UniProtKB/TrEMBL annotation:
PROSITE patterns: RHODANESE_3. This is Rhodanese-like domain-containing protein. Gene3D superfamilies: Rhodanese-like domain. Residues 18-124 form the Rhodanese domain. Signal peptide: none annotated. Pfam families: Rhodanese.
Length: 137
């Protein structure tokens, strides 16, 4: 069974700040949250869960990922939107949550910063570039 699908950063923001009670989970590493920034959800009752999919610098997948997301408030039937740097780790995380019977789980395309441009720079796409609220870690 595959995750529910891919959405743009703007679609994810609308869903997690809307009335359906969706959860945003940032699956990047602590280093990324600290040095690159984190998404911000405006309005009462809208929270972001920070749960590493993999660790830095070794890239090991977090064996407690599903349990940690459950502890952050995800229950079966609650929509969840997963965000990483570029949309790759979040896709794997969405598959893992779906396999665990959670979600529907959505992958946020382009992630927080997007892929590299021709010069090797980031922040050309994704949450930050879409003008969505964020703050420096």
């Amino acid at each position: 069974m595959s995750y529910a699908g891919d959405v743009t950063p703007a679609e994810a923001y609308a869903a997690v700040t809307g009335p359906e009670g969706a959860l945003l989970v940032d699956v990047r590493t602590r280093a990324e949250w600290t040095y690159v920034g984190v998404p911000v959800l405006e309005g009462a009752g809208h929270d972001v869960a920070y749960v590493e999919w993999s660790s830095y610098p070794d890239g090991r997948v977090n064996p407690q990922f599903v349990d940690e997301v459950r502890a952050a408030g995800l229950v079966p039937g609650r929509p969840v939107y997963l965000l990483c740097r570029s949309g790759v780790r979040s896709r794997a995380a969405a598959d893992a949550l779906t396999a665990a019977g959670l979600g529907p789980a959505y992958n946020v395309l382009e992630g927080f910063e997007g892929a590299h441009d021709a010069l090797g720079h980031r922040s050309v796409a994704g949450w930050k570039n879409a003008g969505l609220p964020w703050r420096q870690g």
